[in-house]
# Entry
Amino acid sequence: MATLAHGTPEIAAEEPVNYLNVEHGWKSWLFTTDHKRIAVLYLISITLMFFVGGFMAVLFRINLLEPEGIFSAETYNRLFSMHGIVMVFFFLVPSIPATLANFLIPIMIGAKDLAFPRINLLSWYIYVVGAILTMYAVVRGGVDTGWTFYAPYSSTFSNSYVLAAAFGVFTAGFSSILTGLNFIVTVHKMRAPGMTWSRLPLFVWSNYATGLIQVLGTPVLAIVLLLLAFERIAHVGIFDPNIGGDPILFQHLFWFYSHPAVYIMILPGMGVISEIVSCFSRKRVFGYNFVAFSSMAIAVLSFVVWGHHMFITGESVYTGLAFSFLSFMVAVPSAIKVFNWTATMYKGSVSFDTPMLYAFGFIGLFTIGGLTGLFLATLATDVATHGTYFVVAHFHYVMVGGMVMAFLGGIHFWWPKMTGRMYSEAWSKFAALIVFIGFNLTFFPQFILGYMGMPRRYHAYPPEFQALNVLSSAGASVLGVGYIIPMIYLLWSLKYGPKAGPNPWGAAGLEWQTQSPPTTFNFDETPIVTEEAYNYGPLEEVIG
Amino acid sequence: MLANLLPLFADLPLFPPVASKQAGQIDDLYWFLVAVSAIMTAVIFIGVVGFAFKYRRRANAHPTQIEGSTVLELTWSILPFLVMLVMFWWGAELFFQAQNPPKDAMEVFVTGKQWMWKVQYPDGTREIDALHVPVGQPVKLTMASEDVIHSFSIPAFRVRHDVVPGHYDNLWFTPTKPGKYHLFCTEYCGNQHAGMVGWVYAMEPREYTKWASGGGGEGSLADQGEALFQQNGCSTCHLLDQQGRCPMLRGIYNKPVQLADGRTVTADDAYLRESILDPNAKIVSGFEPNIMPNFKGQLSEENVIQLIAYIKSLSPNTPASQQAGGAPPPITPSKGARAASAANAAGGATSGQVKQ
# Structure
């Protein structure tokens, strides 16, 4: 059963050949085309970026302890801008797709690798170039436009390293496009015999939907950043009304990518949760078809809701009306998922291993993040909360409470598969609890601050907001500790962790039928699939 | 350190003041949303915790496999959607109301500029980072930006609107409770964004009248505009009582204007602003382009507001108007408009302008 591998380190005479020990030396990593090694390269890179972005958050939370601020306005503005840019484009967007999905999609569908292994490696190099460009902007003095790069501030007024940062983001976008493209082609062309679409694990479905958004949406981000650069370098009037441009055009183009991008950042997390909830309830996912279909519905609808970021810019009331309505539509498939995860546990056999704790956290926090999104889809309450900490709290509940929880849950779930080792159960449960407490302490007060009117991106604020800001900063330090603990015990497990065996959780799914860690080509022979996903036993009951 | 912090929590405000008519209305909707969210969160929480406990492995070693249920799926798709339709409709109704200021609203002009709010009243009074309004009186703000996008927000009134450079934005409110309230910029606008704050003073009508009678000392907004109209040489071509080389402006405000390209537009604030800053954007039928110089970059948004106030004040019924015959004179092609467009007599008009 699920816990059989805990605490029994086998005395391995000789480790079998796997993707990690098959070759040694830095060249074997930097020139690899193995999707699993590329996933590890990505994992190291995005973890680094996560801690860079997190460190900036720690600094500006320190600043916000005092109403008048502790650092200068200039420093603060650069900190929150770089925090957003690093976290969104260099952590959240690639987080699950480039690491877990890169590692798992080929194995889950019974393939030897992704469809384009060399393009997969190329995408990592492009990501690194983008990250270096952005870090260059940081080292030179940073950028102060916020992650949204709103014109004409960014194109005409800002005296910071806008071009370097924007070019870094522009570059990283191509790595995202290539990853998405690779997934789409792989899922279409590389499925093992018998792996029909209706047998795909929901994790594959959600990453397939993500791939569609990455391929269709990201080029628009590239376009808007190029236009921004044209205006900044050549003073061609595109966005700045003083030279004949329209600042609203920037927002349309930016959000045409950046709202779907929100779903790039959450859909893969939803896929992880489907896998975890099913495994630790020992039960097939309730309403598989609806959960799979809801991922596709989210991908499609995500492209027609961008205007809800612009209700108060002066767009026509009828435009606002349409975008408000469509934003409610996109809430339905998200709600379907939450209900189905809950129903999956019904009559299951639930265990409380660490990945499941993260899944519980995800469901709770994502529910709050989703419901507070309704306040922002509703026209009148958006007017009252737009640009305040209410919005900050909302998207952190989705992005951090949702996606980072899912990412950590997924890492804990597939760590034995990726590394062949188990980590400390006690420490990992403790860390999950710390993350949950720290998260809520950090972000819940921000809902209250937001409705009271405290604006985002203020380095100083009226004194009556101090108490809640102190709570929030205190929470951030707890959250920081919660993120550092897993770093320690996971690294520790690489050397000292007990051997995991092929299937420590007793989970269904092709990835658990191959050895841990898998060999370079995943399977000795191409598996033949004869059953649907999550086959934890014969169907005994049908409701309705 | 900790001891210093304790007083902070003693008198901890958790909700903004309710100080306008719309504030109460939006709060009702807000509490409805909070209630729905709380119920939904509770349902999910009870479901997750309840199932996890009831079907924990020790209590239930053998799961029962269930395919799913179309009836349940439809239920939990359609029911929440119906509740969301209520939110949508309610929110849209209030939003529509916020777009339509009452006719009797008092008008105040606001210019956002890195990093201050400049306020102009029709009587010519000006202030910076402060707005005085009477309780019980609808107030309509017309707002412009000199540089980047700002956003004008009064949390106690639950009103907010972006102030986008290049055009006018509006919002309105009816203050209900006297007091001093925060005014914030809520669109990031650069280094001192957090300093782009001020106070709104909602006053009893009697006190407001007392405050307002202080006057500007520079005459009304329209007087200030008239001075600019003379200084910038506008009056050379825009004659007051007959058609000059440029359209006559008397009585034109909020009236339809026939354009050279066949369209008809309304001469509202936005049109007048554009025609001052970029005269060739829309040419009135019968007039030549390139006669009036471009005032973009020459006049501040505050100057433009003054000029528009002046144009508004040019009532069609002023006795000086001889040929108007009481009715607002329609803007028709003028006989003299064909005069040499090269003679740009209004050039150099900007030398005498007032810079604030």
